[in-house]
Fold this sequence. Notes:
Layout: H1 2-20, H2 40-46, H3 52-75, H4 80-92
Helix pairs in contact: 3-4
Amino acid sequence: MIKRIAAAAIAAMFLTSASVAPGFAQTTQAPAAKPAAKPASEKKAEKKKASEAQMAQRQKMKDCAAKWKDHKKATGEKGRKAYNAFSKTCLAG
């Protein structure tokens, strides 16, 4: 008996919510149009060129990396800590 009453109550809730729900439905808006993607050739053209200071720093880092290889062979040092310490002194001087 209790099962029938519970089933009837649940059915009544579904029926009332189904008849009320359309009145509270939200309107959906179409998503805003996305701008068209630029071709790769335009993206490359817009890429910012490196400044003279950036180019000099990059070259300095390349030179220090080459010096590290020689230093590592000579001293046998290994690891990130040793490389960072070497790079710090190399880039500073």
